Sequence to fold (132 residues):
Amino acid sequence: MGHGRGGAPFGAPFGPGAPFGPGGPFGPGGPFGAGGPFGGPGGRRGRARRGDVRAAILALLAEEPMNGYQMIQAMAERTGGGWKPSPGAIYPALSQLEDEGLIEPFDNNGAKAHRLTEAGQAAASAIDPKPW
Fold:
């Protein structure tokens, strides 16, 4: 086996029990590795699908009209910070829902807010379970 920096064998930090190996804190199964609660794939903080964002928007607007920023904050609050969609996810979804006739924009004291249309109310009532 070859040697890396400092004379340690290559692969030493990646072997079983090593920091980046199976069972290590940063390896598969470790708390910061894949599958761990704070790690990559399989961890608790996954990316929501676009449909989930749409459902969440409809569910929020069924409660009260709001703007995009308020929606982002409400989603983060309801999930304990586990899901905070980016503006790049929220605003295109708002545009799409508006194009589909499910929501409509209105001026709320100089800020653009959104509310459900009748079709949007029907779509929101069909959401089960809630997205959070």
Remarks:
- Residues 82 and 96 are 25 Å apart (CA to CA).
